[in-house]
Amino acid sequence: MNKKTLFAFIGGVIVLLSLLGFIQYSQLLINNSKNKIKTLLYIGFYHQSIFRKYFTFS
Hints:
It is a single chain. The protein has 58 residues and is mostly helical. The protein has a domain at 23-53. Helix content is 84%, strand content 0%. It is built from two helices and no strands. The chain has helices at 3-42, 47-55.
């Protein structure tokens, strides 16, 4: 392997690991939000108020 191929391979591995880290963080964030929403529903909040909190930016 020459230097260009080696650097391309290392770069590809870094990009792949970054992508996998982003996917894992996204899954953790979604799971945390899911648990919060379940808790809010359990204690009596309405679906509409939860929807407004999570999906409007005001």
